[in-house]
Amino acid sequence: MNSDPGMARPVSDEMAGGTPHGTTNEPSGPPADSGWVPDRLGEGFYCRTLPLGEDPDGEGEVCATLVRYAPGRKQDPSARSDKPAVLWVHGMTDYFFADHVARYLTEAGFDFYAVDLRKCGRSHRPGQRWHYATDMSLYYPDLNAALDEIAALGHDRIAPLAHSTGGLIVALWIDWLRRTDRARHRLIPTAIFNSPWLDMMKVPRPVLRAATPLFDVVGRYFPTLPIPGGGLSAFGQSIHRDYYGEWDFDTTLKPIAGAEKYVGWVRAILTAQEQIWNRDVDLGMPCLTLCSLRSELGTGYRPTVDTADAVIDTHQTQQHAPHLSDAADVYILLGARHDVFLSRPAVRAEALAVTAQWLHSHVDGGGSQSPATADAAVIDGE
């Protein structure tokens, strides 16, 4: 396993979405008929559009976008591989730009893919509401399409690595596959969750349960009614290099303060999280959740935000994540941000090393040992 912390580094101008879509430093592109084109992240990155048909929410044709890291000046991104693969799934108001994770896990022996879900990042189309869906299950076709495309390239072991809202979606998707699609479920030996959003932060449970029926009714009949959104500026400012961070991401695709929210979307989130609260989700496989020790919510940027989760309540994560399967671990990173892979150098190096270790243990046939170290706490699902 390569766990060299030097692999974890800030994204450069050329690699973080700062170049226009479709531009690259590659001297030669993929075959014209492969469906892959050079990606905005630059050399070694390619993307492919996965058409998904008409949007059930009435916003035209939708698609997902699969990104593959295929380093090498002449490598065909459609080339087959029998290596285990990792599939990155982004969160709300997000898209894939963490090229350092792709490089690290590739050096560790895995093939790396990422998916931008419908109406998100590379997959957003004019006239569509950013990250809008009235049911989290609407993302299942996106994930199925990505899984099928990766499997068609020769991979028979594909591990999702899912962040925040993406973690909620992926947990429900894997449970749904376990119940309805065993063939696809067998392709997934494990899952890793990066600060998954499993509960509604800052709202007491009795208040939330009382408010849920109201959101259900209003969200059903007035789904596109906007509600106050954003509230992510502290996290956004802590990571973007124009403020206090190191990362150069596209603020059109990932606004600093987050995207506008709608009642129908909140209804969908509450419905999905209710399955988590009720312990109705079982992945049927080992899984690992990475999260920060503490949260700092409802504040503007201040230096302490750099060492805390400024988006979700990590205590809720630590409460719910051990119940995602009968073999669920929670690894607590001291000083991690909401996206643990965008934490300060020492913490993100630890997150990368733990991720590679877990993958080698559960995807690459290395056993099932826990990734505990002296610098972090592991909550065992049992």
UniProtKB/TrEMBL annotation:
Domain (Serine aminopeptidase S33) ranges: 83-292
A Pfam family: Hydrolase_4
Lineage: Bacteria, Bacillati, Actinomycetota, Actinomycetes, Mycobacteriales
Sequence intervals crossing the membrane: none
Superkingdom of origin organism: Bacteria
Species: Corynebacterium massiliense DSM 45435
Name of this chain's protein: Lysophospholipase L2
Region ranges (Disordered): 1-38, 363-382
